[in-house]
């Protein structure tokens, strides 16, 4: 059996080995955290669509994503309702309004959804009861998201406060989550929406929800709707509108850019750390490498030794980085009361492992050139 020279080289300076492992683990942790926040960004930004009872969505072409939609005529819903395969066409209104904390009297922007209580717009079970529908019909009564941040104050049923200088009462709660676009959400009836956002008329909607019959195909019906409706409305399936919003947050906003840049910077930091460790190790063992070359060992052997050291560092640094990331993921979810769904999945585990191996291998390939250029005659002269 061959002598594990790579392992012995790393163990020769154990303090240096521990520093290298810590450096790789730190880089792995940074990559995991940035990817976690990036995943939470796309999840929270598009989670609303998974809770809407619709297969196809009508939206203005000028809209960027769900929290910044532009209104369009409700007549488009009436026109869509006549297309074969459409079972129901429901309007959804949305906007921001100031919600006053009843305890601190400080107002913060909260995102509002307005619906017709007769329409089954949302899939959350707490909104499907006749009692909830009756509550929504009451003037100046709203439902509040139980995942809204504590800065909005107490969220108990029956509590009264102000919203845009109008008295409002909390009639119940639901669980949805606001995400990066908003710290909290409300649901109210379309009539209450008209009162709070007067003079905006109800014939201008932000999103059209199309529920299809069980036998209808979403893609085919969407094509038919787009051909039938004017160009002032865009027809998207659920998968398409989720992809559209995800692309907006990842490619257009500074938040997506920052987290993506964080992954790249973490990769570079890890590469530099491992390079410094391996380069120092090669420098300290340069006479030994020169001796091996004098004995007849070729550069290929030296290349394998350094690459093995890089792979050992990758594995030894990856494991603690993964374990710490799992702990921080749980801490983040707990600290945000579940409103920031940072979660681990096998795809991310494998992807970061590949990045770690690539990071350390790149460092090894860069640093091994010093050993391969070693000349026995120069070293021992």
Summary tags:
381 residues, alpha+beta, 2 domains, 9-stranded mixed sheet, two-stranded antiparallel sheet, 12 helices, 11 strands, elongated
Plain-language structure description:
- The chain is built from twelve helices and eleven strands.
- The protein is 52% helix and 17% strand.
- It has helices at residues 5-12, 14-50, 75-81, 130-136, 190-196, 218-228, 238-251, 254-284, 286-294, 299-335, 346-372, 376-379, and strands spanning 56-59, 72-73, 86-100, 107-115, 141-145, 160-163, 166-174, 185-189, 204-205, 207-212, 234-237.
- Helix 2 crosses helix 7 (238-251) and helix 10 (299-335) packs antiparallel against helix 11 (346-372).
- The two termini are 33 Å apart.
- The chain folds into two domains: 5-45 and 253-379, no CATH class; 61-232, no CATH class.
- The radius of gyration is 29 Å and the shape is elongated.
- A hairpin with a 2-residue loop joins strand 6 (160-163) and strand 7 (166-174).
- The mean pLDDT is 89.
- The longest helix has 37 residues, at 14-50.
- The protein has a nine-stranded mixed beta sheet with strand order 6-7-5-8-4-3-10-1-11. A two-stranded antiparallel ribbon has the order 2-9.
- The protein is an alpha+beta fold and 381 residues long.
Strand content: 15-25%
Per DSSP E runs of 2 or more residues, the count of β-strands stands at 11
- Rounded to an integer in angstroms, the radius of gyration calculated over CA atoms is 29 Å
Output the helix-strand order.
Answer: HHEEHEEHEEEEHEEHEHHHHHH
In the sheet with the most strands, the strands line up as 6-7-5-8-4-3-10-1-11
Question: Helical content, roughly?
Answer: 40-55%
Give the CA-based shape: elongated
Cα separation of the termini? 33 Å
- The number of distinct helices, counting runs of at least 4 residues, comes to 12
Unreliable runs, pLDDT <50, ≥5 residues? none
Structural class: alpha+beta
Counted up, domains total 2
Q: Can you give the mean pLDDT? A: 89
Largest sheet: 9 strands, mixed
């Amino acid at each position: 059996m061959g002598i594990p020279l790579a392992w012995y080289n790393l163990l020769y300076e154990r303090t240096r080995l521990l520093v290298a492992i810590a450096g790789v683990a730190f880089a792995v942790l940074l990559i995991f955290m940035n990817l976690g926040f990036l995943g939470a960004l796309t999840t929270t930004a598009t989670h609303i669509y998974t809770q809407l009872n619709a297969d196809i969505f009508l939206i203005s072409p000028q809209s960027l994503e769900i929290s910044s939609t532009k209104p369009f005529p409700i007549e488009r819903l009436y026109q869509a309702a006549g297309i074969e395969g459409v079972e129901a066409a429901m309007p959804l209104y949305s906007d921001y309004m100031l919600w006053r904390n009843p305890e601190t009297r400080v107002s913060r922007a909260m995102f509002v959804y307005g619906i017709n209580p007769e329409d089954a717009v949302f899939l959350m079970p707490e909104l499907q009861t006749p009692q909830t529908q009756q509550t929504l019909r009451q003037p100046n009564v709203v439902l509040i998201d139980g995942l809204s941040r504590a800065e909005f104050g107490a969220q108990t049923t029956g509590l009264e406060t102000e919203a845009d200088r109008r008295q409002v009462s909390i009639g119940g709660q639901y669980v949805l989550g606001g995400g990066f676009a908003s710290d909290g959400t409300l649901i109210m009836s379309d009539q209450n929406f008209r009162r709070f956002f007067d003079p905006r008329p109800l014939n201008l909607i932000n999103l059209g929800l199309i529920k299809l019959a069980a036998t209808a195909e979403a893609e085919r019906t969407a094509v038919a709707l787009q051909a039938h409706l004017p160009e002032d409305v865009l027809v998207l399936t659920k998968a398409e509108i989720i992809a559209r919003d995800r692309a907006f947050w990842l490619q257009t906003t500074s938040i997506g850019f920052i987290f993506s840049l964080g992954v790249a910077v973490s990769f570079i930091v890890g590469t530099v750390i491992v390079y410094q460790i391996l380069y120092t190790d090669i420098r300290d063992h340069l006479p030994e490498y020169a001796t091996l070359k004098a004995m007849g060992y070729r550069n290929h052997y030296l290349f394998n030794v350094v690459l093995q050291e890089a792979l050992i560092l990758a594995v030894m640094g990856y494991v603690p980085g993964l374990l710490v990331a799992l702990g921080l993921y749980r801490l983040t979810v707990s600290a945000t009361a579940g409103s920031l769904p940072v979660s681990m999945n096998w795809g991310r585990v494998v992807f970061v492992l590949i990045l770690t191996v690539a990071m350390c291998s790149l460092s090894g390939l860069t640093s091994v050139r010093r050993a391969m250029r070693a000349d026995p005659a120069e070293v021992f002269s």
